[in-house]
Amino acid sequence: MNRIGIVVLGVLLAASLCYGQGSTSAPSTAAPAVIGHGSFPVKVVKTLDSSKLKVDDTVEVETAGAFKLPDGTLVPKGSKLTGRVTAAKARSKGDPESQLTLTFSQMNVANGKQLSIKGTVQALYPPADEPMGPNMSTMGTSAGGSAGGAGLGASSQAGGVGITNAKSGSDTESTSRPQGVMDMKATGVQGMDNLQLDNGVLTSKGNNVKLGSGVRIILRVDILG
User: Fold this and answer.
1) Rounded CA gap, 65 and 118, in Å?
2) Domains of the chain
3) In this model, does residue 110 exceed pLDDT 90?
């Protein structure tokens, strides 16, 4: 009887171990799918200063114009985008170069809808009411402008789909635009001194990186599903 009891106990123990292993699921590591991508303009609403910000601080900007996404969703002018500081370094005696890196993760659109995004700084322009500096000559005649975006489309489509200017109904992929407006294909710092931009990282030699209210940013954005 003792031998039979030991055998039964062993069978029950093995069964319980197998059940425990089968019921444990591995955590999901799949990254969110990219369902759209492109570039559009936003502007700074509160001064961003590398000497006052620290990593993981929340930052907010707003869209510089109204436009529609390829699925027809309206993104009104002034829509908020929320992000965070991923790197911040103030100028110091030992290191005269300051640094600021921003990434954006959420965009509010019409009717309270929120989209998950991955946004990085593609280009930088002075406020709209300030004259452009010598970098004006680097601007092309590609799509976009302060009231629209360019090239935001489904990731599965070659070439993307242009954003539609919500006010005029015109496709902002049009190649005609007023002189002096933002170029959605521009990269780097345009018309602003003592600032550099490389792969989303803003740096300044001799000064702190400081983006005042109204400074315009072209964001390169992936919309996540």
Assistant:
1) 19
2) 34-224 (2.40.128)
3) no
Q: What is the pLDDT of residues 154-198, one digit of tens each?
A: 544 333 334 445 554 433 333 344 444 789 999 999 999 999 999
Beta strands in 127-181 (DSSP E): 150-153, 164-165
Can you name the residues that pair with 89 across neighbouring β-strands? 99
171 strand-pairing partners = 164
CA dist., res. 191 & res. 197, Å (int): 12
Per-residue DSSP letter, 25: P
Q: How far is it, in rounded angstroms, from Cα 147 to Cα 127?
A: 14
**Tokens linked to 65:** 């114009």
pLDDT at 220: 96
Q: How far are the Cα atoms of 60, 119, 122 from residue 84, in angstroms, in the given order?
A: 8, 11, 16
The backbone torsions φ and ψ at residue 88, rounded to the nearest 5 degrees and listed phi first, read -150, 130
Q: How many C-beta neighbours within 10 Å does residue 146 have?
A: 17
φ, ψ dihedrals at 138, nearest 5°: -85, -10
pTM of this structure:
0.71
Sign of CA dihedral 195, 50, 108, 37: positive
pLDDT of 28: 60
